[in-house]
Design brief:
Elements: H1 9-12, H2 15-18, H3 22-34, E1 40-41, H4 44-51, H5 55-63, E2 67-69, E3 75-77, H6 80-83, H7 97-100, E4 103-105, E5 111-117, E6 120-123, H8 129-134, H9 138-144, H10 157-178
Antiparallel strand pairs: 1-3, 2-3, 4-5, 5-6
Helix pairs in contact: 3-4, 3-5
Length: 180
């Protein structure tokens, strides 16, 4: 693990970040200092204990989109690549390959969580994502992690993703009618 990390002022001086509690902001810095070169922290509970922060601070970071939590317990720092650029000769890939493979970066270098559905990668929309898509400010798009065309996907990916979402919605409606 590296001994030095960077924090972008575009992230940590944004209104969204400053609206977080002091504990959540502190926890974000601790996570940043303890993340591997891909922005993943495998032991967030240990990091929480070291920082003196609590579950409420942790949940605030998740709900505001500053971290992504995986089923394994590991987390990813959403804006990692905005803050940190690691030279190839110093880069050491994460040991959390399964978690890392669930991430994609959008054109603003912000991680989003993807889930596999019918051979199409489906971007999981965070709470409040509809509000993000309405805002056109480039600063908000950078900080909010607006979901758009991703650098990891072909140009027709969005239409396929939207089609898969509609298909899943229809299935969910049919299942709920069956269980009534």
């Amino acid at each position: 693990m590296a001994r030095r990390r960077m924090f972008s002022l575009d992230v940590v001086q944004s209104d969204r970040f400053l609206d977080l509690s002091v504990g959540a902001r502190l926890l974000y810095f601790y996570f940043g200092m303890n993340a591997d070169d891909d922005g993943i922290v495998g032991n967030p509970k240990t990091t929480m204990r070291l920082s003196g922060c609590n579950d409420i601070d942790f949940d605030d970071l998740i709900s505001e989109g500053f971290i992504i939590r995986f089923d394994s317990g590991a987390i990813a720092i959403t804006h990692w690549h905005i803050s940190n650029a690691i030279q190839n000769d110093r880069y050491k890939g994460t040991i959390y390959k399964e978690e890392f493979n669930q991430l994609t970066r959008n054109k603003n270098k912000v991680y989003t969580l993807c889930i596999q559905s019918d051979s199409i990668m489906d971007t999981q929309v965070r709470l409040g994502q509809d509000r993000v898509e309405e805002e056109n400010s480039s600063e908000n798009n950078l900080i909010e992690g607006k979901v758009g065309e991703s650098e990891n996907h072909p140009p027709d990916w969005n239409s396929k993703r939207n089609e898969a979402i509609r298909k899943l919605d229809k299935e969910m409606q049919n299942r709920s009618k069956t269980h009534e």
